[in-house]
């Protein structure tokens, strides 16, 4: 399998003209850069997002305080599997404890997470399914809720700003996304790639989070600068990506790939946290998934269908149906790849 390609790079784009009052020309230049990044990489670094340093520092403090709790305490914040909220322990935990030697097999995910998201009570007056729009659980950790909510609100704003840019970049009417995101099924997953020292011995490469594409419209990703995130290039190479100082990573999900007839890319990525002296070097990230309304119907954009690009998604699908199909695949232990181009690319990468 190819590693690191000299052709691969994640563009850095300053979105200040959309966050503050930019001129029409400045905005058009940003939209062109975003369009190019979305067509060729599907990942980008954004600067000028406007999230105050103190809010980002607060998120990191809240995560540190929660993940430092002992495992039994953290497990009291688990929710039933159908509810994507609260604490999610490492999948490999029981195996690594009982067997000592862990297979580095890619179905094992060595990370713990805490999820928060949009709840039914956030959208009074809208009839929404209680399991999908579940209420949050908040741990008894001083300041956790306030700090996480402050960052969540900023990440939501950045995700919505990205869709404003997307509308311009795709030549869509202003406000196009509003009709699909008024009660968006957003979730933020705070990830902690760490296991206590001595817990694992591996018989091969460790995969922290298996290769996958994200499900929704767009993901806003905050991450440490500890290496680990790898992104698949169009030539089949896996490439290390770390956020630059003050940058956030943005990547597209499958809803956008469907909508744009795969002209914009929902790119495969995975996390391989570094191993130092047999222990995972701790790495943290927080992925804010902006998925769209559960009942939003995603129909391939007609202006992105032509002779060179026949419609790859002739069956419109709702965001809810699409997410259910993805979850069914991952729960059955199937690899979480999508149809079409993405699948071809992952198979090519396997060599
Ligand atoms: O930890 C990372 O950098 C990426 C996390 C990710 O891909 C996800 O949560 O979907
Ligand atoms: Fe992801």
UniProtKB/TrEMBL annotation:
Pfam families: 2OG-FeII_Oxy (PF03171), DIOX_N (PF14226). Pathway: Antibiotic biosynthesis. InterPro entries: DIOX_N, IPNS-like_FE2OG_OXY, IPNS-like_sf, Iron_ascorbate_oxido_reductase, Oxoglu/Fe-dep_dioxygenase_dom. PROSITE patterns: FE2OG_OXY (PS51471). SUPFAM superfamilies: Clavaminate synthase-like. One of its GO terms (biological process) is antibiotic biosynthetic process. Residues 328-351 are annotated as: Disordered. Residues 184-292 form the Fe2OG dioxygenase domain. Keywords: Antibiotic biosynthesis, Iron, Metal-binding, Oxidoreductase. Residues 334-351 have a biased composition (Basic and acidic residues). The keyword Ribonucleoprotein does not apply. GO terms for molecular function: metal ion binding; oxidoreductase activity. Belongs to the iron/ascorbate-dependent oxidoreductase family. This is 2OG-Fe(II) oxygenase. It comes from Pseudolysinimonas yzui.
């Amino acid at each position: 399998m190819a590693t690191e390609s000299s052709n691969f790079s994640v563009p850095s784009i300053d979105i200040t003209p959309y966050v503050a009052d930019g001129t029409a020309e400045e905005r058009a230049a940003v939209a062109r850069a975003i369009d190019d990044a979305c067509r060729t990489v599907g990942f980008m670094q954004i600067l000028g997002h406007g999230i105050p340093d103190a809010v980002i520092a607060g998120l990191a403090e809240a995560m540190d305080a929660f993940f430092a709790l002992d495992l039994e305490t953290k497990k009291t914040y688990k929710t039933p599997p159908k509810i994507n909220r609260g604490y999610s322990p490492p999948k490999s935990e029981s195996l690594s404890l009982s067997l000592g030697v862990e297979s580095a097999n890619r179905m094992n995910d060595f990370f713990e997470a805490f999820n928060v998201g949009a709840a039914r009570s956030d959208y009074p007056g809208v009839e929404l399914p209680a399991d999908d729009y579940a209420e949050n659980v908040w741990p008894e950790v001083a300041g956790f809720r306030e700090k996480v909510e402050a960052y969540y609100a900023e990440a939501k704003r950045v995700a919505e700003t990205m869709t404003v840019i997307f509308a311009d970049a795709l030549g869509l009417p202003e406000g196009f996304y509003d009709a699909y995101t008024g009660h968006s099924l957003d979730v933020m997953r705070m990830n902690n790639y760490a296991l206590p020292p001595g817990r694992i011995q591996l018989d091969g490469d460790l995969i922290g989070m298996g290769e996958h594409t994200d499900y929704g419209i767009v993901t806003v990703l905050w991450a440490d600068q500890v290496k680990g995130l790898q992104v698949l290039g169009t030539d089949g190479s896996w490439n290390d990506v770390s956020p630059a100082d003050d940058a956030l990573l943005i990547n597209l999900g499958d809803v956008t790939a469907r909508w744009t007839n795969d002209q914009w890319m929902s790119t495969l990525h995975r996390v391989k946290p570094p191993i130092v002296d047999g222990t995972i070097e701790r790495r943290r990230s927080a992925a804010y998934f902006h998925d769209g309304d559960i009942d939003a119907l995603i129909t391939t954009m007609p202006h992105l269908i032509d002779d060179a690009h026949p419609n790859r998604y002739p069956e419109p699908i709702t965001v809810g149906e699409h997410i259910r199909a993805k979850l069914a695949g991952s729960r059955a232990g199937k690899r979480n790849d999508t149809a079409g181009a993405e699948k071809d690319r992952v198979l090519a990468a396997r060599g």
